[in-house]
Amino acid sequence: LLSNDNINIQANQVDIDSNINTKKELNISANKGDLTLAKTLTSVGNMNLSAAVGGINANQLNAKSTAGNLNLLANGHVLIDGSDKAKATITGGKGVTISSLTQGNTTVKNTNVKSEQGYILVKSNAQTILKDASLDSKKNIELFAKDNLILDGVKSTSKQHTALNAKKNIYINSEADEK
Fold first, then answer.
1. How far is CA 66 from CA 17, 26, 132, 158, 176, in A?
2. Spatial separation of the C-alpha atoms in residues 56 and 165, rounded to whole Å
3. Are the beta carbons of 88 and 112 closer than 8 angstroms?
4. 40-to-26, 27, 95, 113 alpha-carbon distances in Å
5. Where does residue 48 fall: left (phi above 0), alpha (psi -120 to 50 degrees), or beta otherwise?
6. CB of 42 closer than 8 Å to CB of 21
7. For the segment 4-26, what is each residue's pLDDT rounded down to a tens digit?
8. What's this model's pTM, rounded to 2 decimal places?
9. Given this model, what pLDDT does residue 100 score?
10. Run of H or E including 171
11. Nearest CA among 36, 30, 32, 4 for reference residue 18
12. Which of 5, 7, 107, 144 maximizes the CB count within 10 A of its CB?
């Protein structure tokens, strides 16, 4: 799907398994269920990918907002997963926000996250888990969890500050005890 204008997709549950490219903004929203994403999503303006009630499942996703913010926001879980051979990529020109807003974990695995001019924010009101991921930001990198913050095999490069905050524990290159 290719457009010179904004693309807005909204439904109760959304499954995207095709390439989408717009020269303006891309907004995809699942109102009641999960938002499932794969393939390549590209926008020049902001990219807003959201699940109002459910979660976000992004497998092998390559998403890029060249001149705007890229936001993956869900009231449920957020799962972004690539593979050992082909990492997922999340790139925002001005910034990247990946967040589970009310419930559910935020998990970023086998993924390269990059902000070419701005910040990276990854957070959850439950656990935030980054595994085999790289974070590259021209400004701040901020990782927050209301529960545990788990970083395993994470490479982080920030031109300004990197902040880690968890209400419970921060695990670096180790696993949380599931007892």
1. 21, 12, 24, 19, 36
2. 23
3. yes
4. 12, 14, 18, 14
5. beta
6. yes
7. 999 999 999 999 999 999 999 99
8. 0.95
9. 97
10. strand 170-172
11. 36
12. 107
Stretches in the chain below the pLDDT threshold 70: 175-179
> How much is the pLDDT for 178?
58
CB-based burial label for 179 (10 Å; 0-12, 13-18, 19+)? exposed
Note whether 7 and 1 are within 8 A (CB). yes
For residue 106, the cross-strand partners are 78, 128
CB-side neighbour CA atoms (13 Å) of 9? 21
**141 residue type, one letter:** I
Amino acid found at 148: N
pLDDT of residue 165: 97
Residue type, 1: L
CB of 102 closer than 8 Å to CB of 129: no
* Predicted local confidence at residue 176, as pLDDT: 66
Residue 96 is encoded by which pair of tokens? 């990247």
What is the C-alpha to C-alpha distance for residues 50 and 27, in angstroms, rounded to an integer?
8
